[in-house]
Amino acid sequence: MNFTENSDTRRSFLKKTGATVIGSALLGYESFARPDFANNPLKVGLIGCGGRGTGAALQALNADPGVMITAMGDVFEDKLAESLATLKKTGGDRVKVDKAHQFIGFDAYQKVIDSGVDVVLLAAPPYARPAHLAAAIKAGKHAFAEKPVAVDAPGVRSILASAKLAKEKNLSLVSGFCFRYDNANRESFGRIMKGAVGEIRSVTTYRYGGELWSFPRKPGWSEMEYQLRNWYYYHWLSGDFITEVTVHSLDMMAWAMGDKTPLKAIGVGGRQKRTDPIFGNIYDHFAIEYEYENGVKGYSFSRQHLGCPGRNTVEVFGSDGKADLAMYKHYRITGKNPWEFKGKNNVMHQAEQDEFFASIRSGKPINDGVWMAHSTMLGILGRMVAYSGQEITWDAAINSDISIGPKYEDYSWDLKWPVSEVPIPGLTKV
Predict the structure, then answer these.
(1) Overall average pLDDT of the 179-207 stretch
(2) Residue 34's pLDDT is what?
(3) pLDDT of the residue at 37
(4) pLDDT confidence band for 35 (50 / 70 / 90)
């Protein structure tokens, strides 16, 4: 069966992709397509078997009839077992993960990579992404990297190095910043970048939501296991929620700004409502101002307060109008060039997998590496200024040598990483 001939996704690949993807395809890469990539099954390994990883694997199965899940890895055996059961219900005999290819532990990622897979889906918590991506690209694997891709500046620089190597090896590297794969956003931001609102003066983003999951401590759990099971609430594992969740909004701000990086940032944040110890040491609200060249400003407002209204919007103010984008609701431009999105909606998580596997089949690699690293750094910079209360330049932040967690090779169940108190602006050093 020729898998390159029976998918609308591949036939419409270049039509559907936005400027970011098209730009990647036009950078003069040599084709890296192999006959087995063009016509035969693609062996896929899943690293990180939580909800998002399982979802990515299901979408990979939907993206290409030749995808087979052949290896899985996680630090927790129960997470892997739950994920595998879910995948088998949908994937049937295309999920071929025997016991010998179910890897548990901090080195599970390397065992998946070494198991003979062609593609890896990287969906472990953010602290692990730089090490996992570096190993995957070094081994010549196409990689999907869930967002965010790091929790600190050294991690971001590692991602940039991996992205460069992926480009040299002609490997596809697709980002989990899924809003860039949304049809409505692509048309909206495409118009913005073509001047529909004129010269951009400012961008404002809001990401308001409630509280998320937490897992009560169980007898026998070490402190390390407890924190890993509740990784979201510890900034050394998640980067804080500005880096883990609000980063989607920051990525759209970056998109509107043409992916230029800001000069500096200043802002506030704190822990007003989510104060119980089960919430670790992260904040529950942030308000950050990013300053770009020529005085252009980007503003990010985010909170996670149960019982309060939600909001997920981007507003782009320009010399000729305004773009008002409310995710999943409306997308419109007012002013000299009025417009409203009336097109067909898509499932953005599915679209990113569709285009990822289409690029592998066609030998036209996608490389989202630089912008996904820089968007992640926007979240890290926002956390740094809020924690410290100081104004910090982009250059100082991205060149920082401070790691907020241990080296990945030092992770173990016996690790006793000193978890800091909740940061206090004016006192906390970053």
Answers:
(1) 98
(2) 52
(3) 67
(4) very low
Residues 249-257 have a mean pLDDT of 98
Q: How far is residue 134's CA from residue 418's CA, in Å, rounded to a whole number? A: 26
Sheet holding 119-122, edge to edge: 102-104, 67-74, 42-47, 119-122, 142-145, 173-175
Report residue 171: phi and psi, to 5°.
-105, 145
CA distances from residue 152 to 138, 148, 155, 227 in whole angstroms, order as listed? 21, 11, 5, 18
Residue 348 · residue 7 · CB < 8 Å: no
- Report the alpha-carbon distance of residue 243 to residue 219 in Å, rounded: 31
Quickly count: other Cβ atoms within 10 Å of residue 308's Cβ.
Answer: 12
What pTM did the predictor assign? 0.91
Cα separation of 170 and 149, whole Å?
20
What is the Cβ-side half-sphere exposure of residue 40, based on CA atoms within 13 angstroms?
Answer: 7
User: What domains does the chain contain, in order, with CATH numbers?
Assistant: 8-179+349-368 (3.40.50.720), 183-342+376-410 (3.30.360.10)
CA gap 158, 155 in Å, rounded? 5
pLDDT exceeds cutoff 70 at 84: yes
Beta strands in 112-261 (DSSP E): 119-122, 142-145, 173-175, 200-209
pLDDT of residue 8: 38
Decide: 319 and 201 in contact? Cβ < 8 Å. Answer: yes
